[in-house]
């Protein structure tokens, strides 16, 4: 009998927020690397909000995970067998191995990770897809200028904390929004935000808007959008003329029936969004980071040394054991994590 | 007793669609030009949808017309007195003279118009603010590429017809939307659209979407937005990845309570708009043409010769008499005009 691995598959599609029933832990044979392939024993895997979208079968930028298929995830681990000259056993690699203890992929789909430089977990967060998403979206579509004001929600997450730190380094005022007093403290003390508002402390979008207005006395020039919903409704009236809104996600609407398709929201209407874009000359750009990997080397060149030096901080929240990934994921969607959510698989 | 002029003032703010009560014809003394000023006898004035916005006191990119103030308009006429070396009596000038028979403005706020080149009415439409709006928004924010598909509503209006003709000249497929079979015929036969759909023939956004899908077999790459509402709802699901939406107006929402602020629309929701921008990587840009007058000389250089040669067509709908301006304006907001709406004042 061949050696066994574990993986978590999509047992059923969620109706609203995912539940434990939607996931199933399975055993399978460890695959052997075919020509050009590399087998990796996963040490850490990433949990990210985009995975919620993959659980629906709504048309999106990426194909949904099929029912019975392994949940998608980026992960990092040690090469234990290689059929490619590009990787040797004992080296470390990042790849889309999924929610699993092992993964086997073509060498050209992997990125080498050097554990002597930085902890390998950084390849999942601050120097991985989320950090890159924050850096790219802000610099490319946010067009930040010194003296301007930026707002970003989920300010202690791996995207928001990168956005805030890059904005500060460019001379902007950075105002975060986060869920809970602990996160707001972390945003200001560790990530250097000028202020951070606890959205849970404001019952309505109007209340949140009032508090934001006090923290953004010169209005808002860049709203880095990753949540939608109440925060968007609060921010919109405060946007300055010619402000920019990069959109990398809208987590508050992910559970509202197929990624928010057709779901109404009492806080803001379609005409109000459209009118704000028009009368304030806003520039609104949606993007998915996987279309922009040609910029990843530039990101690493600019940002990795600052992470190594401590100039850019990061915080990780590490759950133990693949079997606990569903619980950690469901908790993260409700904001239960503090910093980048990772699962230690080995 | 001094010589008298006529003007139309905002008698009261409209509640929804404007009515005749909202306007009042008044007499006043003809002003004398102060130092640097020029007095013009207006021959033609322009009626444009943006004027509906000026009648509300909602915060917008431009100050509202005060109750009792002269309605705003661009107009063109003959200089009858000048206190500036820049203009001589007998010359023609375009300026923001308002809904009035005469206007007196600083010379630096006027644009000279040469009646020997083209009819002076073209300074109000095809070679005026609307034509410039169409050309600028399409080329700047639409980023059109040969082989792509463009959709624009109000296709026979001065903005939409410019957008369609510029798109065609750049090698795009141009699909118009207009209200009524006559306009659709005009769009195809005079303005060269590949197809034009009568939005009145489709009861729902879904029906319109189905018809649009048939005319846009490769999807939509540029949606030049000037209407909002049902058309926006129909177009959104057909947008291709990386498509562009310049927004210069949203006439279908103008009457919905203060430029659509806070007004709901059954056809499309805020989350659906946001989700489309995200998952299709859309680039959405609002603009007002008055921020971009530095590009007007480039527009004239490129487009005026094509208007003179007949390569770019234009159609004008000319109402007679200042006193009929309110009726012509109210009719235009309902789509009653055929081509650029102008009022002959003298």
From TrEMBL, chains A, B:
Domain Enoyl reductase (ER) intervals: 19-343
Pfam families xrefs: ADH_N_2 (PF16884), ADH_zinc_N (PF00107)
SUPFAM superfamilies: GroES-like (SSF50129), NAD(P)-binding Rossmann-fold domains (SSF51735)
EC number(s) on file: 1.-.-.-
Protein name: NADP-dependent oxidoreductase
PANTHER family: PROSTAGLANDIN REDUCTASE, PROSTAGLANDIN REDUCTASE 1
Top-level taxon: Bacteria
Keywords carried by this UniProt record: Oxidoreductase
Single Gene Ontology MF annotation: oxidoreductase activity
Keyword Oxidoreductase: yes
């Amino acid at each position: 009998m061949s050696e066994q691995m574990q993986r978590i598959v999509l047992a059923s599609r969620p109706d609203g927020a995912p539940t434990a029933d939607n996931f199933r832990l399975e055993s399978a044979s460890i695959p052997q690397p075919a020509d050009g392939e590399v087998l990796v024993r996963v040490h850490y895997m990433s949990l990210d909000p985009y995975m919620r979208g993959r659980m629906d079968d709504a048309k999106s930028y990426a194909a949904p995970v099929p029912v019975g298929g392994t949940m998608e995830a980026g992960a990092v681990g040690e090469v234990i067998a290689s059929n490619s000259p590009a990787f040797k056993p004992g080296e470390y690699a990042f790849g889309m191995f999924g929610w699993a203890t092992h993964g086997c992929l073509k060498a050209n789909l992997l990125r080498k990770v050097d554990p002597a430089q930085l902890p390998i977990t950084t390849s999942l967060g601050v120097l991985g897809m989320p950090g890159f998403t924050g850096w790219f979206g802000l610099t490319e579509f946010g067009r930040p200028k010194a003296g301007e004001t930026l707002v970003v929600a989920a300010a202690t997450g791996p995207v928001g904390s990168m956005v805030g730190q890059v904005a500060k380094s460019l001379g902007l005022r950075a105002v975060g929004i986060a869920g809970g007093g602990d996160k707001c403290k972390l945003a200001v003390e560790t990530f250097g935000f000028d202020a951070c508002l606890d959205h849970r402390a404001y019952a309505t979008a109007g209340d949140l808007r009032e508090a934001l207005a006090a923290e953004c006395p010169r209005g808002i020039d860049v709203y880095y959008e990753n949540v939608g919903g109440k925060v968007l409704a609060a921010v919109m009236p405060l946007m300055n003329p010619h402000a920019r809104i990069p959109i990398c996600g809208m987590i508050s609407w992910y559970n509202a029936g197929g990624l928010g398709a057709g779901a109404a929201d009492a806080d803001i209407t379609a005409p109000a969004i459209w009118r704000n874009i028009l009368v304030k000359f806003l520039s609104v750009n949606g993007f998915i980071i996987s279309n922009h990997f040609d910029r990843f080397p530039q990101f690493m060149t600019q940002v990795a040394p600052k992470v190594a030096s401590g100039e850019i901080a990061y915080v990780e929240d590490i759950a133990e054991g693949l079997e606990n990934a569903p619980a950690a994921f469901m908790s993260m969607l409700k904001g239960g994590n503090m910093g980048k959510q990772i699962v230690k698989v080995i």
